[in-house]
From TrEMBL:
<feature type="domain" description="HTH lysR-type">
    <location>
        <begin position="16"/>
        <end position="73"/>
    </location>
</feature>
<dbReference type="InterPro" id="IPR000847">
    <property type="entry name" value="LysR_HTH_N"/>
</dbReference>
<keyword id="KW-0805">Transcription regulation</keyword>
<protein>
    <submittedName>
        <fullName>LysR family transcriptional regulator</fullName>
    </submittedName>
</protein>
<dbReference type="InterPro" id="IPR036388">
    <property type="entry name" value="WH-like_DNA-bd_sf"/>
</dbReference>
<feature type="region of interest" description="Disordered">
    <location>
        <begin position="289"/>
        <end position="313"/>
    </location>
</feature>
<dbReference type="InterPro" id="IPR005119">
    <property type="entry name" value="LysR_subst-bd"/>
</dbReference>
<comment type="similarity">
    <text>Belongs to the LysR transcriptional regulatory family.</text>
</comment>
<dbReference type="InterPro" id="IPR036390">
    <property type="entry name" value="WH_DNA-bd_sf"/>
</dbReference>
<keyword id="KW-0804">Transcription</keyword>
<dbReference type="Pfam" id="PF00126">
    <property type="entry name" value="HTH_1"/>
</dbReference>
<keyword id="KW-0238">DNA-binding</keyword>
<dbReference type="Pfam" id="PF03466">
    <property type="entry name" value="LysR_substrate"/>
</dbReference>
Amino acid sequence: MSETAGVPGGLAHRVPDLGALELLLAVARLGSLGRAARERGVSQPAASGRVRSMERMLGVTLLERSPRGSRLTAAGVLVTDWARRIVESAESFDAGVSALRDRRDSRLTVAASMTIAEYLLPGWLIALRTERPDTAVSLRAGNSAAVARMLLGAEADLGFVEGLGLPPGLDGTVIAHDRLLVVAAPGHPWTRRRKPVALAELAATGLVLREPGSGTRQVLDAALAAHGGLAPPLLELASTTAVKAAAVSGAGPAVLSELAVGEELSARRLVEVAIAGPELGRALRAVWPRGAGPTGPARQLLALTRRDRTPQR
């Protein structure tokens, strides 16, 4: 076994780099070191020096130089034949990797919590399609806990969640802030009160709520923990649209994102109920598995969300 055979990188000390091999192939094809240098975009002295370096590395003479041009030696013919195989293999390798990259960059799977999926992502995805029309996007919606599971299970490339903090195992960045509102149909007694509803009363009242694991429930649980926690819900529903429809129908007061109820408040199908205490605010985050930042179309989508700050207060 040679001295360098077991040493990482040992082979690299005995095999010229691809650029040098491509130069040698050009000399063989064109019959001139000067013409080969021009084709490869280097000066003739640089090309000549590169060939001499190869000869020193390999320990054989590759070219016979004369005023009429450069001719391969017998050893040079053999080395050129081997070099052609190496360059062709490298080209095949590069084509394969490019195909893998193109396939990866032509698909994007996004996981998003319900409010973001319904009210923010459509605009971002339209903008992404303008910039990357060949990218096929799949959207998977669920609560914040479900989004975290999809990312950690490699079922999505980028996620969006609402809540008080980052789910375990994920990295992320705040892209906007949202406000939660207590809303009710116009006939509800809370809509006629002059004084705000105290947090203790809100905690003691059955509400129309999203399910545990949603960003909305996380914020409510934290805000009302000091007041005995949430009472059993009147209804527990798995989507923002369903909660909103129940509230509009008069089922009871609900807690919903400001993003979700703008149209209903303007049309007076719902009324905002004033609450005594701090705002029920939450961050909206883009998230991804810890240590693996977004790449390709996921990175581009993240950049688009940072341009759009309309929900931020």
